[in-house]
Design goal:
64 residues; elongated
């Protein structure tokens, strides 16, 4: 096996329920994750701001 060329230093902070903040390299501000629309409805989440899900970011990263 070759030498390690990159090690991510990301960290996740749970705020409340499904709402989390991700601290990722090369990004000055944390990235918010949560639920919205049909996903929020499925899990019975109410009374929170709608925020992109981790699935939204995975789909965007895969397509990018």
């Amino acid at each position: 096996m070759g030498d390690v060329v990159y090690k991510s230093t990301s960290r996740i902070e749970r705020i409340k329920g499904p709402f989390r903040k991700a601290y990722i390299p090369a990004t000055a501000d944390p990235v918010d994750f949560g639920v919205h629309g049909a996903i929020a409805k499925h899990y019975g989440v109410t009374g929170m701001d709608e925020v992109a899900t981790t699935l939204d970011y995975i789909v965007a990263a895969t397509g990018g």
